[in-house]
Specification:
Blueprint: E1 4-8, H1 12-32, E2 37-41, H2 45-61, E3 68-72, E4 74-76, H3 86-95, H4 114-129, E5 141-144, H5 160-164, E6 170-173, E7 183-186, H6 188-193, E8 197-201, H7 207-214, H8 221-228, E9 232-236
Parallel strand pairs: 1-9, 2-3, 2-5, 5-8, 8-9
Antiparallel strand pairs: 4-7, 6-7
Helix pairs in contact: 1-2, 2-3, 7-8
């Protein structure tokens, strides 16, 4: 039975700080076990705060990111130096300041056509996670934001094909309701099989979307993620009714 652990915070700053501490602790535990830690990042305002806070804390703790493999939950089809790029956000906020090794960074290639980028990303994630062709790779952690319409990554409401597909690792997304229209997104299958999924849901105007996602009959992309997982952790500054 699906279960959501909801952690409430007084502000998005407090939310980002708590999530950053928990993430660094998870990395430290993984490193102590002599294994790589695979994470998929997202974009957005709260993710920027999370990454900046994680960088500051990691410096204070002298964290070693050499065993962390970085992926992305989604990307806009733009070059990596474009202001809209989720990679650029992470690169400026964390990857460069923390001197993450280039070979640990597996960005979604937004400069390619969506289908080609999704195919290349699928091969790379399977390779790093040790999944054979046709298997769903298992990420240690996927970090997601949430839109006011309940979308996560670049999985939007009213996309029946993406909602029903639980076998694709990455999906090409066309005609997204938010610009830019072409994107690449992690599919519902890897979101269901990830060892952990944390949703950073913050900001005004999102209470209805979060309440709907938590309802048994919820049908938004986030609702589907919650329904398909045994447990998902939600960090939020939103009061739910």
């Amino acid at each position: 039975m699906s279960q959501s652990e909801i952690l409430f915070f007084p502000s998005d700053d407090a939310l980002a700080a708590a999530a950053a501490v928990a993430w660094l602790d998870a990395i430290a535990a993984s490193t102590a076990g002599n294994r790589d830690f695979t994470v998929a990042l997202s974009g957005g305002r709260v993710m920027r705060k999370f990454l900046a806070t994680a960088t500051t804390l990691a410096t204070a703790r002298a964290m070693d990111f050499s065993r962390v493999q970085f992926f992305w939950a989604d990307e806009r089809c733009v070059p990596p130096d474009d202001p809209e790029s989720n990679f650029r956000l992470a690169n400026e906020a964390l990857l460069l300041p923390a001197a993450v090794p280039a070979e640990n960074i597996h960005r979604l290639r937004g400069e390619l056509a969506p289908a080609a980028a999704a195919e290349a990303a699928t091969r790379q994630l399977r390779k790093v996670c040790g999944a054979s062709a046709g298997e769903l790779p298992t990420l240690d952690l996927v970090l997601l934001g949430m839109g006011e319409d309940g979308h996560v990554a670049s999985l939007f409401p009213d996309d029946a094909a993406a909602a029903a597909d639980v076998t694709a690792v990455f999906l090409p997304v066309f005609n997204a309701p938010k610009p830019p229209p072409n994107r690449i997104s992690l599919g519902h299958g890897p979101l269901a099989t990830a060892r952990a999924v944390w949703v950073l849901a913050a900001g005004p105007g999102k209470q209805a979307a979060l309440s709907h996602a938590l309802a048994a009959a919820g049908s938004t992309p986030l609702a589907r993620v919650l329904q398909r997982r045994a447990k998902t952790t939600i960090f939020t500054d939103i009061g739910c009714e």
